[in-house]
Amino acid sequence: MKLTIKTALSTLAIVLSAVTSASSQTGVSLPSADDVVTKMLRADIERRSELAGYTALRRYVAVNQDRRAEMMVRVDCSPDGAKQFTIISEAGSGSIRKHAFSKMLSEETMASHRESRDGSRITPANYTFNMLGQDTLDTGPAYVLEILPRTANRYLIEGRIWVNAKDFSIIRVEGKPARDPSFWVHDVHFVHTYQRVGQFWFASSTQSTSEIRLFGRSELTIENSAYELHPPATHIAEADSTARLVR
């Protein structure tokens, strides 16, 4: 779910990231970073235990000096977090679609598997946290924390997170990779935002920019929409039981 942001970071090896800026408020009584992170992790465990999976639509748009490409895909996420992608439509540069979009989908599919997720989650095992202040977004008040990766892993980031002050969900992430994705890609920056669907927070958009050797500045936009939650397993079991009774 949201603590895993490989979606944004897997894309960094090709075209990425965005303009970062945030205003945090000072001079107010704030909880410690440890307190916020503890509540954030506890709330995330509770929400993930209730998530039965979802489907959504995702649109990719990549642009550099002389090329542009788009792709629309359907995302199917199972209860355990594993994702599958189905391409609905695509247009523009075949090179970008083949070498960028296809690579992103493949990397995110692999990264969504349980054995790969823990290494990139925003948790104390992977990051240290520092309280920076409080900010007010469209979604309401949020705590702003600096996150510093414990290792120079390309799938970890250095930047800031915004944690909703009411339900302790991560609702915004800004930063850069812990190290350049490759020799060809550098100066990467991104902004990753979330939207609320029921009681859950899912990826809303990613805006990213990077410098790619030989091609210059490149921009990538990812937009997510049309989320549909899968019914809880208990509801499915009840429906099956009812169906058997009426046969």
TrEMBL record:
Keywords, ordered alphabetically: Signal
UniProt KW Signal keyword: yes
Domain of life of the native organism: Bacteria
Signal peptide, first to last residue: 1-24
Protein name: Outer membrane lipoprotein-sorting protein
Organism expressing this protein natively: Edaphobacter modestus
Taxonomic path: Bacteria, Pseudomonadati, Acidobacteriota, Terriglobia, Terriglobales
